[in-house]
Specification:
Layout lengths: L24 E5 L9 H5 L5 E2 L6 E2 L9 H5 L5 E5 L3
Antiparallel strand pairs: 1-4, 2-3
This protein binds iron/sulfur cluster (2 copies).
One iron/sulfur cluster (SF4) binds next to helix 1.
Length: about 80
């Protein structure tokens, strides 16, 4: 796996850096038991979760794979899996 190392010194540049390259694990939105509570969208620190009940997904160009969305989902409708599995 190629790891790019760098430093971002100016604020407001997140759109210019596709931070999804850093990801080791990725969220899988199962679309089975989702109630549309929006917690995954509200808690994602990157603001990359989009959709509505049973259609939520995220922008993998920017998702860092932190797993917070899966942790906060009250009905376990998001699983984390290793990247490339
Ligand atoms: S894994 Fe982290 S960055 Fe990716 S969608 Fe979930 S909360 Fe957002
Ligand atoms: S946290 Fe879970 S139940 Fe709530 S909107 Fe996201 S996927 Fe659906």
């Amino acid at each position: 796996m190629k790891l790019t190392i760098g430093l971002v010194t100016s604020p407001g540049t997140s759109r210019a850096n596709k931070t999804g390259d850093w990801r080791v694990r990725r969220p899988v939105f199962l679309h089975k038991t989702c109630t549309g509570c929006l917690l995954c969208q509200l808690c994602c620190p990157e603001g990359v979760v989009y959709g509505e009940a049973k259609t939520f997904d995220c922008d993998f160009d920017y998702c860092k794979g932190c797993g917070i969305c899966a942790q906060v989902c009250p009905v376990h409708d998001i699983e984390m899996e290793l990247e490339g599995e």
